[in-house]
Amino acid sequence: MIAPLIPRDDLLLAPGLVHLQTGGVGAMPRPVLEAMQAAEIEVEADPARETYGPGMSHLEKVRAKAAALVNAASADDIILTTSATQGMFLIAQGLKLTYGDHVLITDHEHPGGRLGWEWAARRYHIEVDSIPIAPGETDAQAIVERFADRILPRTRVLSISHVLFTTGVQMPVAELCALAREHGCKAVIDGAQGPGAMPVDVQALGCHAYSSSGHKWLLGPKGTGFLYISPDMSGALDALPLAAGRHPGSDSTGIVNIAGLRGMGAAIDYVQALGSARIAAHNAKLRQELHRQLSALNQVHIPAPATGPLTSANLAFCLPDEVDIHALRRSLVLKHKVYIRTVELAGFKGLRASLHAYNGSEDIARLVEALGEELAA
Fold first, then answer.
1. How many CB atoms within 10 Å of residue 377?
2. What pLDDT is stored for residue 243 in this prediction?
3. Beta 314-317 vs 127-131: how paired, if at all?
4. Using CA atoms, how far apart are residues 201 and 197, in angstroms rounded to an integer?
5. CATH 3.10.560.10 matches 8-28+275-376
6. How do residues 323-362 score in pLDDT, each as one tens digit?
7. Measured between alpha carbons, how far is 333 from 316 in angstroms, rounded to an integer?
8. Angle formed by the axes of helices 258-274 and 57-69, to 10°?
9. Are 40 and 186 in contact (CB under 8 A)?
10. For residue 157, what are the β-bridge partners?
11. CATH number of 31-272
12. What is the spatial distance between Cα 193 and Cα 140, in angstroms, rounded to a whole number?
């Protein structure tokens, strides 16, 4: 039996609810919520001072915590945002792309990591090219070669997810960043599925930008996130939110959610206390157990292996075409109080379970039992 790393008493989840949707939104631990509430009370006790004055120093500490979490060289490399999506849009808007420039992405990018480039295509007439990534991909070198084969003299950006939100494939990010730098391209990473689920070292990855969310695997407040920009990327950006600098609450960002961002700082502390490597090992064990139990169900097909360098805490699986996955998911939620999500993109159609530190063997058993019951109905 695998016990959760986070005790149930630390969570505010409804009794009996099995939350396997951290890849969409995490369950905030009680200490994080209490820290955010205390910060809000502090702000409202002296609004002008906390909003415009010395109280803003708290947010500089949050930048430092985010920098330490992903091993950025300096807190100056961190911008506080509302989400990974906002960070990705800032990069797409801020890079000085022009007519004919070429951007490479995968065919499984989240809308938050894709729509900014599509906007740039409409506005500046750049070309956005998608590289196919199979749901059961296991060959990192083959992925790198696929990207290498599509790089053109006019390619300016490789923009990829650290972990694909649909299938859970963990991309060979360091190798792709090295490829981008070799060809003079910017390496931009959608890290919404990274920090909090596994250790992240942006310097080791060699990326130019890494955008992440506070509300997923970090278990922080909704509407929070951060963006890492490498020192050698700074001069390449000209985005309006950075016009007055990178400090939160600047003239070009306006007032920010002080309490929420301080709550994200508390969430980073909470995750750091558990240990990113320890969380990743826990999640990997849960993945193996869920993979084994789902494989025993006749109608379930899991395209990815149980373990391997391209696997993650997101496990996706498929069902026969005649199964209405949306109706099935509704039944899992409403009848069994088991929350997972459907995923449909680039020819892949299935369900995804996200396994995190507050999950354990009992949650897996609940999912498998409920799924078996619904498929037999």
1. 7
2. 65
3. unpaired
4. 13
5. no
6. 999 999 999 999 999 999 999 999 999 999 999 999 999 9
7. 17
8. 30
9. no
10. 103, 186
11. 3.40.640.10
12. 18
Count, residues in the chain: 377
Cα gap 377→372, rounded to integer Å: 9
> Which residues neighbour 359 within 8 Å (Cβ) at sequence distance 6 or greater?
4, 18, 19, 20, 286
- 168 phi, psi to nearest 5 deg: 80, 10
- In the chain the first and final C-alpha atoms are separated, in Å, by 29
List the chain residues with pLDDT less than 70: 240, 243-244, 251
Instruction: Burial-class residue 179 by CB neighbours within 10 Å (0-12, 13-18, 19+).
Output: buried
What is the pTM assigned to this prediction? 0.97
- Dihedral angle sign, alpha carbons of residues 258, 260, 266, 269: negative
Mapped onto helix, strand or coil, the DSSP state of residue 109 is coil
* Separation between Cα atoms, residue 46 and residue 24, nearest integer Å: 35
Structure tokens at 187: 């390496």
Same fold, 8-28+275-376 and 31-272: no
38: helix, strand or coil: helix
Closest to 228 (Cα-Cα) out of 69, 72, 109, 60: 72
Distance of CA 228 to the CA centre of its chain: 14
Where do the domains of the chain lie?
8-28+275-376, 31-272
Tens digits of residue pLDDT in 259-291: 999 999 999 999 999 999 999 999 999 999 999
Is the C-alpha dihedral spanning 93, 196, 182, 152 positive or negative? Answer: negative
The Cα 193–Cα 182 span in angstroms is 26
CA pair distance 377, 371, nearest whole angstrom: 10
Beta strands in the chain (DSSP E): 18-19, 78-81, 102-106, 127-131, 155-161, 186-190, 209-213, 225-229, 314-317, 338-339, 341-345, 348-354
Q: Is residue 126 within 8 Å of 100, Cβ to Cβ?
A: yes
